[in-house]
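Worked example 2:
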Amino acid sequence: MSNYVLDNDEVILLNLMGSLDEDIVYITLTSKKIILEQDVKEKKGLFRSETKKVLLDTIMLDTIKTYNGKVQVEQKGSIIFIQTTNKNYTFTLSSFLDASKFVTKIRDAVTGTTMTDRGIEKVNHTFDRVDSVLGFNTRESVKGVIENGVAGTLLKGIKKKDK
């Protein structure tokens, strides 16, 4: 990352190598941006050349689109698709694992939450939706089954109706 200076409140989350439009690029994900750099050979005389890193593009994380609360970064194998307000990008990374890490880190940075927090939020939202449709407290029912077993919960429910 020789051509980019981090802000005081910016941190590097991930460094990867991949390809963008058939070119090998260095991808640096920070807490605010995705920085794309490429090696370029520069002639230094008749027989000598020097390789320099050149800044290709900078993608601000706040320009990545979201739809229905979902960050528009998709992964298919080792290929990543990113939709931004300015342009769409397609990266190919060296492995499925690198691509998965990259997508997860981008979603974490854009949403300000972790994958675990987003999963818990989905489960809570599902329970709330089921509660509103069925008209009873699903969490309390599950808690009763865990504490008393299925038979104990059913018998408790029957005893309450008799009284």
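The CA atoms of residues 78 and 95 lie 5 Å apart. Helices lie at 96-111, 115-134, 138-162.
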